[in-house]
Structure formats: C-alpha cells, structure tokens
Records
---
Amino acid sequence: MAAGVAVIGFDPLARSWVPASPKKQADRSANHNSLVDVPPLDGTLLTDDASLSQAADDFGHIVHRRPTAVLRPGSVSDVVTMVRFCNTHGLKTAPRGQGHATFGQAQVEGGLVIETTPLDRIGTVGPHSVAVGPHSVAVGAGARWSDVVRATLEHGLTPAVFTDYLELSVGGTLSVGGLGGQTHRHGAQVDNVTALQVVTGAGELVRCSASRHPDLFHAVLAGLGQCAIVVGATIRLVTAPRTVRHYLLPYNSLRTFLEDQRRLVEERRFAYVEGQIAPDAQGAFNGYVLEAVAYGPPAGPEPDDTELLRGLRFNPSGVQKETLDYFDFLNRLAPAVEALKAAGLWAYAHPWLNLLLPGDEAESVAGPILSALTPDDVGPAGVVLLYPLIRERLHTPLLRMPDDPVPYLLAVLRTCPPDDEDAVARLLRANRRAFETVRDAGGTQYPVGSIPFRHADWRRQYGPVWPRFAAARHRYDPLGVLVPGQGVF
C-alpha cells in the first residue's frame, strides 16, 4: 500500500464515515502476502486494483470493504479449494453474484470474494445434475434468472416465482428468499428448490435436500450465506403461459387498496399481485396502483376482464390493461433499467428499506411510514412497493415472516447521489426508525436492504429458529469464515 493513502470505510452502526484502523490495513497486507501459497486453480485469482475496487462496491454504493483477492472460478473445485485455503490461513470469504447487494453484504475486508458468475450452466450442473425435465431444472449459482427462464421456456416450462428484476443470480436470491408477485400462490423462490449443491464453510462439497442433509438444506435457503456457498440448485418448474393479461388499477384509498389486494390473493384470482405507491403533484405518497396479472393458456384459461375485475373498487378512469408475451411481462423492467443507466441514475446510492408487515397491522403501520415520505426520501429513481403474501405458502424456516396469515411486503427502494454522505446517513437513520416501528408491531425485515443491524437484532429476527441456525453455523462453518458482511454471527 502506498504511503499516505487513507483507507475509508463506513461504520453502519455509528452511521459515519471513519478511517480504517492501522491494524486493519496491516492485516490486509499480511493476508495479501499469504496468497503466495494458493494451490493450482482451474480459474483465476485476481489481485489487480480494478478487480479489488469492483469487489469493494455493490449496487448500494454505501459500504466499501476492499478484499485481498477475487476468485473467478473455473470450476466448483476452485470454490472448494479456496474455501479450504481461507480456513487454513484465517481469511474471510463471501460469494458475489451480480453485485446487487445494497449494504456491503457480499464484501470482505482483507479477505476473498468468490465470483459466482462463471458457474452459470443451465441443465447440467455437477456430477449429479439433471437436464430440464418435466418438473425441474438444475442450474449453476451464477446463472441469471433471465437466462434460466429463456432456457425453460423452450420446453414450455417456467420457474414458478420471480423477483421483479430478472438480472439477479440464482445463488444470490436463494440466499435471501426471492419474493415476487407470484409468491402468494407458490411461496418464495426458496420454497421452490428441491435440491442444492453447496460448498460448506469447512470446504466440503455437499448435495443436500429436504431428505438428504436436511439441516444443511434448511440452513442454506434464505440463510444469508452463513453456513455454505450455493454453487448449484435444482428448481421446480410449472407450465408456462404463452401470454398474460396485465392490469394496472388505481386506488384513492390505502385501506381499499389493501383490502382488494388481500381479497385477490386469498381468492387466488390472479397469478401475480403486487402494488406500487407514487407521489401526487404535491409530493404526497397517496397514489395507489394495484398491479395484477392473469396467465393465459396453457397455464390457465383465456383471461376474462369482466370476471377478473369483478367486485374490485378501483378508480375506473385510470385503468390500464394489455396483453403481453409472457417473457416480455417478466422482463418488463429491462427498458427502464437501460434508461436509468443511460441517465446515470443506476449508479446512485440505494439505501433500500424492505420490511415485512403483519397483515392485520398493514394499514396502521404502513400508513404513517408512507405519509412521512417525501420525494427526497425516495429519490429520482426510487420506487415504493406494497403487496400481500400468503403465509401458508412460505415454508422456508429462515425466511422470517410475521405471525399473520397475510403478511405484506413494504419496500421503499430509495436512491440518492452516492457522494451525498449526509443524505445517505439520513436515509439509513430513517430505515432504522421504520424497522423499529415494524418490529414492535410484530414484523421483520426482508434482508436485502440497508438497515443498520446489530447481533441482537439478528437473534430477535430469527427468534425460535435461532438455536438451529447457530448450531448449523457451528457445524458447517466452524471457523466462521463465510460472509462476514451480513453481521449475523
């Protein structure tokens, strides 16, 4: 490290930018020297400045932790080799897919970042994998969901659940849960995994499922990478529609909006239900839009507007409806993302807030949070989402949900200039306050956002499943080398 170069890091609990300690800088140099002992690899171990700088950033552009090296694996064996190496040399390590974390979750100060993007094969993953079959597909952890669905659609099949943005890695969303508009029918993405291929924190390659090493299987799905690195997954498939009927239904009342959403998911009237909240001309977030989608043949009957919209209390003057190709519907954010990139807004900071509310408290909890929002709190490229899930469809133990039959996801996907440190700090404080309000009402956080969290918060988040989670961590990552950026253990 050149003399006179200051290393700056973000302390999320102190909510301030602080210089790295001399010890941390010395540890980084020592760790770099230990890399001379790396065994031969099929892929590449990168230590150039550009690779390390990229791995020290993410979609959030808030936290910056610089690793010692980045592994671009040529095989799953490389992941095994380097996790064992990290155990031997006392290095921390974390997998990184598309780098879409918002709060440094996949960053490692002075350790190893493992890129999963080369592990992107679809249909043939590892010695035990299967090709696309009538009910499932095996994929690599680095495969993007957009590529997975393109491959399965060739067989008339589709994964059952998608997040709204398709350019995320399979391993990334399975580590947190994977919620979307189809979740009320099919659960989260983690609820649609039949088997995993993982590298444990001890460096063992293991295939697991609900019947084979079930404790590991349930500790990895939505487990934030704390017990093992996902390198492959077998995903359940369902019949795909050729086209869908897409509706945007405006509402003037939060209560009516929430009640109609709840009615739709309980009746299973639509295949997809979400909701957005936009500001009016005065900047108040009171424009409620229910988004609903009905699948056409062969996944369902030909959509009937009259029957599908029966009894709903939307404002008829602003209704939008259209028929879309199925993939075009799934990928509908792609043009907007390209526009954001062209405008430079994709590079803004993303101090996101993602919360899970008890359904019975959704109006009383979400209402004050929404009424306090201003356009500056959301930013020029921000989005506010609010939509219901069905608790009985969600079976993954570590995907923590409120104790309510119809919980709601509230997501305030904030943006602000990345160099505006005061704005970032202000929004992080607001995230923490909103989380505490939701927590006190019986809610949880969906851990993809930017909420300053302490160890005690994690213990409370996991509640009755914490002892099993901690036991799995001790068993499968006994030296605690995996994914320190989550701050769970």
---
Amino acid sequence: MIEPRPSVVIIGGGFTGAVVGASLARDSSMEGWQIDVFEPRERLGCGLAYGTDDPAHRVNVPAGRMSLDPDDADQFVRWMQLRGEPRGDVEALAPDGHLYPRRGLFGRYVADAVAPFLGNGRITHHRQRVISVERRGAGWEIRGDAGTTVRADVLVVATTHPAPAAPAGIDDVLRGHPRYVADTTVPGALAAIRPNDHVLIIGTGLTAADVIASLRTTGRTGPITAFSRRGLRSRGHASRAQDPYGDFTSPLSATATDLLVRVRRVVARAEADGFSWHAVFDALRSQGGEIWRNLPVAEQRRLLRHLRPFWDVHRFRVAPQIDAIVRAGLQSGDIRILAGSIDRLERNGDEIAATFRRRHAAGIERWNVDAVVITTGPAHKSVLKSQIWLETLSADGYLQPDAVGLGLACSETSRALDRQGRETALFIAGPLARGTFGELMGLPQVNDHAIFVAAQVAALARGQRVTNAALSRDDGSETLRAATTIS
C-alpha cells in the first residue's frame, strides 16, 4: 500500500496565498510534499487587489518597491521592461519620475512567478471555493464547491478581509436600489451609475479614492460627496525621495499616548531638518511590528479606537495619478469630502434623500443623491461569519477572533490559536494576522509575512521552529531572505 504524500493546503490564492505557495514550492525541505491551493479565480496571485481590470486602479507605491524578492527591489521593474510594459498606459509615469502601473499588471507579474510551479506539478490549483473544512485525526479535510476533497497535514488560511459593512440602517433602506453599491469589489459594481448622477460615498479612505478615480476616468462628471466621521482622506506621496526618519524602538512606547507624543515630536524635528512627515511614517512602518507587539492589549485597542484613522490616511497613500484627480475635483468644487454623519436616509422609489450633520457644526443639511457607494473598509469583526467554513472552525474551537478585532488570533509564529490558546497545524497568512503582527496591509509587509509563514510551515515539516528574531532585513522589517526567479 502506497502511503499518501504529506500535504499542505492553502485556502486563498490571491497575493498572500500565491507567495506562500511559491515560497514552499521553492523550499528544498518541502520535496515530497503536495501543495494545493484553493482559489476560484483563473490565476493565482490575482485576488481582489491585483485581479482588477479597472484601468483607474493603480498600485499605491512605486513599482520599484513592489518586488516579490525582498533582496531584489528592481525585479518587478525588470519584468515589465522585458515585456514592454506598461504598454498603452501613458499615465503610468508620475511627475515624480516613478512608475505607478495598473494593479492588474502587478497581478500578472505575481501569476508569472507562480506559473512554473503549476507547470511542473509542485503546486495544484483547485479553481473552487472552499465550502467545508473539518478536522480528521491529526489533519484536515477540505472540500471545494465542485466536489474536490483534499486532505491536509498543514492548513494555511490566506483569505482576504470580509466585505465592507454599511453603517447601521443604511442597508435596510437602500437594499435593492439600482445604484446602491454595498461592495465595490464586485466586478462591474459601479456600472449602473449614470454620467450625471450625484454620488454619495460613505467612507473617505483608499477605496473612496479608487471609486472617485474610476468614476471620473469613465466619464461620470456628476457631483461627488464623500464623508466619514472625521473627513480624513488618504494622502499622496512625498514630492521627493526621502530616507525613513526617526527611531521609535529605543525605547519602545508602552502606551498609545506616549507613541502619539513621540510621533508629533519627531515630525516637528523632521520638518526642521528638511524632511516631510512621509519620512517619519516610513520609519514607523518599518518598525511597526516591534512597536505593536510591545503595546499591552488595552493600549493596542486604544490606538485602534483613537489613532487608527490618522495612521491609515498617512500610511496608505494614493498613487499620484489618483491624488491628482481628487485634488482637481476638490479645487473645482465638484468633489466634496466632509466630516460628519448621516442623521437620516430615505428612499422614495429611486430617489434618495439624505439628512447630514457636519462634525463640530450646528444645524443639518439635506441632499438629494442618485447613488450611494459604501467604502467604509473591511468588516474586520465579521471575519468568522464571512465564510461558512471559518464559522465552522470557530464553532469547533479551532479559530477565534484576535483580542483587538482585526482578524484571527495567532501566535508569533503565525499559527492559529484555538479556544484554549493552543497552537495547531493551522497557519494564518496575510492581513488576517494583523492582531498579532501589527503592520500587515502594505504590500512589502504582506509579502514578508507570506514568506515568513512559508518558512514556518517548512520548519514544521522538518520538525523545527523559526522565530521572528531569525528573520530580519536591514531596514528592520521582518522577512525571510529567499531567492525568486521569474523569466
């Protein structure tokens, strides 16, 4: 009788899952292991972020900082040069001299990195949605919606965030309206919006900027009103290259208040030295994991509750091309970004009436709008209810939410913590591990973490253990040095 090969199954084949899979396939200690990826999309690496075909959607950082190989920053740029890309995209080169190509092109680059391992059988791609995951002895049984059932010795959850959740009451009023967009990630979500419609966008972060760019680049010239509680919009990039500025690890802050005071002090010092706030936040990003892990849970919660909106709009910057569209609209007045809240929303047929109360202002405003788009960001606290198999694993005690409400609880080796706080052969890869690792939204950090998870899986296969201290890059961020070859 032939013994089955040991296997690892990765659920989710977007950017994170693709990098985990390729890193495992490259690892010599995984020889003899089967690697399966469940991902319903045609190509691995082309998830929500990089599977988009919207020409307005651009990478948010320069192409020279988006390599899959942490030791080869120009890899993506060379990949484009070899293929004559970005072909037909005359706006890809920003005034600052950096390339900001369309996100779909980066998705192709990731897909090309994984393709050799699909071709030689090191990775098997199941184009199916997972409908169930059950514990079977010391392993897992994963079933797809096309009937495929696979056994796994090790399971990696690399799924994306849940869809946005509309503020209370809005979905009840607008559900079924032809121009109510509850989830902008659905293909063609904005198609029903007409050229002259007045669009109300709920949320003012990165997704709102993408929506504004998509509307304007497809000939929708109607007024746009975007609002959030604080009215903060995602900022643009610095006009010139700067090295990270500031040290926030010597010593580490023990409270959110102390961290805020230090950041403000360093920003002031940076400006006096000729640096912009961008350089300070770049330093915070590279030191973010260490800063986050040193904060007690109560302080992590305070930071998220009070400071996260300010962090998000400074850390996650929009491409210059998108920033220019938003700035032009703000200057002309056909785009407004407001701070406040909806007091009342009413629908009469296809007519939508909104009663709005500005923050720190007396009185209310009444608007009539034609379309409403939700861009409030992922519903982090709903992650376990976002897919039935996650809910089942939670009910069976194998998964639990993290302590701060960002995703799933895991250890510092990224292994999921069960109901008793014990590690299992189940790993959390990507942004759903933010509660433990902190900064896991920017592409370099997600890439580093995916490589780290692959190293942990390989170490488990060898009966070893890899610690965070063993994975360090010169800029202070966590990574595993690994070679990546793309022809």
---
Amino acid sequence: MRQNPKRLQADRPNLARVAGEGGPAAEPTVGEGGRPRRGLPLFWKLFAVQLLAAAALLSGVLLLMRQQTATSFAAYVEAHERQRLEDVAERIADQHAQTGDLALAALSVRELRRRALLPPPPADAERRRRRLRAPLTVLDADLHPVAGVPLPPGEALRVPIVDDGVTLGYVARPPLPEWIAPDEVGFWRRQTEALMRAAAIGLPLAALFAALIAAMVLRPLRRLSAGTAALARREFSLRLDANRGDEFGRLAADFNALAAALERYDRNQRQWLADVAHELRTPLAVLRGELEAVLDGVRPAGPAQLQSMQQEVQRLGGLIDDLHLLSLAESGGLPLARERCDINALVLGAVARFDAPLRQAGFALEAQLAEGEVMASVDAQRVEQVLANLLGNVLRHAQPSAPVRISTAAAADGSVEVRVCDGGPGVPADALPRLFDRLYRVESARSRHGGGTGLGLAICRSIVEAHGGRIEARTNAGGGLCIGVELPAAGTRT
C-alpha cells in the first residue's frame, strides 16, 4: 500500500512529539542559544531542601536553648547574689547594733573591709576586675554611699539593712552584666561550648538523614523512570512492585494498569492488522487469479469472469467502507444527525426490507412492537444501519429452526430497547463478550457461508455507543442468540 508523502510529512511532528514523551529518540530540552539545559539532579535538590530545613530547625532550637540558658543563668546569678547581699546586710545590722555607726559597721564586714569610696577601675584593669567577686556598696537610707566603691550607672541590685524594724540603709552591687564571678563565667562558657558541640554533631547527622530520605524517595522514582523507558521500547510486559501502602505503591499500581492496557492494546492492534490483511488478501487473491487467467488466455474475458471480479471488487470496497466507518466511530469522529424519531417506524422499515430475503431463506420473521410511538433522539440513518447489520447477521449465520423475533420496548426512564433474537445455533458463553470485537467470528458455531466482513457487530457497537447507548449479547431461551440495543431517551445528549 502506497503512503501519501504529504500525510507522512504532516505526521512527522506528531511522531517527534511522541518520541519526545519518553522514547529513546527524545531530544534534550534546549535553552537559549540551542544549548541543552542542564538542571540540578533531583537528589541534590531534595538533599539541599532537607538539609536547609534541618539546619534551620537546629539553629532555632540552639538559639532557643541559648536564650533559655541565658535567662535561667541570669535568674540563678541574681538569686545567688541576693543571698550574698542579704548575708552581708545581716552582719552589718549586727555591727550597727554595737557601734551605732553605719559606716563603721560596714567597714567591719570582710566584704567591705579596706574598700573605701574609690573611683571605678580603669579599662585596662577589666580582666583583673572580672576575676573578683562583684564589689559591694553601702548606701544610707537616702541612697548616699557611705562605704565601698561607687556604683556605675544602671539598675543596681539592692538589699535593705534592717535593725529592729528600721531600714538603716542598703547593700548594693553593680548591675549583673558589669561584674561576673569566675564560677559564673565558667558555667556560661561550658553551656556555650555544649551548644556548639550539639550543633557540630547535629548538622552532620541532619545531612546523613537528608541523604537517606532523598535516596528513599528517588529509588521508586528511578524504577518508575526505568519502567517508562521500557514502555517506550514497547516492553509492555514489564510490571513494577506495587506492594507498598504509600503514594508510590498507588503510582506503581497505576503504572501496572497502564502497562497492561498498553499490552492489550498492542496485542489487539497486531491482531487487528493481521485480520485486516487477511480479509484484504482474499478478494485481492481472487482478483489476481481472475486477471492472470484472462491475461494468460486460460479464460476468456467474458461476462462471467467480469461479474466474478466485480463481486470481489464490491466485497473489497465494502470492507474498506466498513473499516472507515469503524475508524470514525471509535475515534469519536462519526457525525450524527440527531432528531426525534419513532423507533417503531425504523424497525418496521427494516422488517420490510429484510422480510423477503429472510422468508426466501426459510426464516419466519415476527415483529413485536411497543404500543404507540417510541421516541428517541437518534440519527435515523445510523440506527437503520444497526438494524440492517443485525438482521443481515441473522440471515448469514443463523438457522431457520425457529422464528426470528424483533421487538421494541420503552423503559420507565424513557430509554428504548430493541431486541433481535434468532433460533440458533447459539454462541458459547465465553464468546459472548467478544462478539462485538472487530473481525471476530465464532467459526465453530455460526458459519460464514453467507459471507460478510466480520465488522458488522463491531460497527453496531460503535454506532450505539456514539449515541450514548449500549448493546449486549446473550443466549436466547430457545438456544439461539439475542442481541439487545438500548438507546437513550428523546432529548438526551451525550
């Protein structure tokens, strides 16, 4: 069969697009300048996202811990220093009860001994100052210093000096950030070092877990990618492991369902092509034989030979027309001129056309029609074609052992059912679902002596489904075959 060069040229973009959807001939995606666009692999993207998330979480936890530690540490230092000031204030009060002088009482206490009112230490003495306990200051009731070192600016920590219920003055120390004891400095340093060690250990662990999670996510994706590539190579028998309870398991199950559907489709297409080739080969072989016989002078080019060749040409043309109609119907391109029609009238027209041929072949044709008009929104010409195919199927394959009945009935929902039943021979139960397949014949049960292309029932199904109806075959009570056609109600659009 010759191919149309323009058709092939027009199909090249489609072929290139199909190959680009996963086939080995797919071209890489290009960016500006025609260079291939290279993106970061998904593993590193997942790894980076998870590592950044873990680092942000770890940083937040460490910052929170640091702030919490600082708050707790400040509360601890304040409580510790307040206890020290209360002890000093109590001793000053005891000394005041003996001396009656607040300054002398303060200087008799060890923490304030030999510490007169001196200026604050210079900046270069900061390191030495921080090695000591925070200096104390004694204030009188009017907050004037009487002993100790001057207080730097800021909110000082003060404890009252009380003797017999009378507040004599206060013991104060500089604000907490100004003076930190060696043990306090050590505690703060140890807490900071512990937090840094936790960060140093946690970040590599986060990187390890990020890599493991990325690998776990990518493993089924790689299998799915390999399976998709296998489907592009037409390896439709491949199946993925779907024994998972997560989304990847459902995705693998969907992939397996797709592979099974493609396998069935590929098998049907191969069988379809083989059957079409077989059906075309028979009339072509007869034509070739007749022509060669005439050309070789074996037979004269008489009316009988020409009529035989015309019959084969008609059969060949009928097969091509049926294939074209079936292709239109299955692709959704079959045009339907819908109108409100009386199905009873269409059935009576089909009965009138086939009554004589059926009676001549020995069949008794009976029509059982519903009362009144049975309306449906259909293409009258296509429905007549369905009825003609069903009655022609009876004429070619059935035996006149029982009457042929064609009936109509209206359902409660407004749909219309048409049935064509013959007297046999019947069809095996396992063959009933395949009766409407293209070029399928049950050779052992229903002979093909009457000819036919084997596409009649397939065309009937396509036309009925294009109307939004359905067609089914079942065994007749008398042992024959009964085919039922259900058409939608009038006004229904699909």
